[in-house]
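Sequence in, structure out.
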Amino acid sequence: MGLAKPAVTDDELDVLSDLGDEIATLAAHLHAATYRLLTMIAEFDRLQGWEPEGHRSCAHWLAFRIGIDLGAAREKVRAARVLAGLPQTSAAMEQGELSFAKVRALTRVATPESEEALLELARCSTAAQLERTVRAWRRMCRLDENELERIRHRSRCFSVFPDEEGMYLVRGRLDPEVGAMLMRAIDAANDALFRASTSEASTSEE
């Protein structure tokens, strides 16, 4: 049988409590410093500071300059870009309340309209719990997008018919791809008509 673990004294509990507080305080300072780092990355990326040295992107420059994995660099650049548009999340991280792990998850789904609700979830969740919540949130958003796409698809229509004066009336609602093809066809027809009218005018003048 193993020896019983000696009881922790009150003095040792005080030391452990102080050590825990110091760890949490230092972590908050690191979170705030990481926020500053992300704001600088966002500005550097906006100014395309990586181009003069011949790097392909800000992430490539970041991986080279500070020696991190390219995938991690891409996540930092992505999060930095999104964080610039999330004022409440930015303020929370600047104050040391949010780790980069939580901010990385939030910036995958948060918008200025939804960040308040997601921020409350982040404050009362672990990083792992928040990741699961974000994955579920993204699935719901994709389902909403699919439903909207089905509604748009069902609303398609197109008709062409002559009126009493012999003019043609065109009405319709088309998918973006079909509408773009139709616009190109109309532009091509306009060009052909313009060339034909120009040719006829030149013949008349001659």
